[in-house]
Fold this protein.
Amino acid sequence: MSGSQGMADWTTGEGAIVYQSCASCGAVQYFRRAFCAVCGVPNPQTRRSTGRGRIYATSLVCRAATPEARAHVPYNIVLVDCDEGFRMMAHGEKDLAIGDEVVARFELFAGRLVPHFTRDHRE
């Protein structure tokens, strides 16, 4: 699919992560836009991610920001460098460390479906 709309992902309740790729310069971006953030060409292609990547940073949250999140404390927020070349913030297993290879699963958190990264045990 092309354009900034179209493919469903976790933000619309689908168990998927999508990103965009510029047909002109090859740049990838996680946040959907109507144009490439690098070169400005309109209508980057929307693609589905494999959900695989490597932990860039991790932060254990011990104090909930909202009443709905209190039931989940403590929970881990991670930055993941996805295999396709973009970085995203998501939830992750509590014992993940920088450099761990991970894969996204999808779980309910405070009533919404969210990406939750776990160790990737692929050979």
Observations:
- The mean pLDDT is 92.
- The chain has two domains: 1-48, 52-119.
- The chain is about 0% helix and 40% strand.
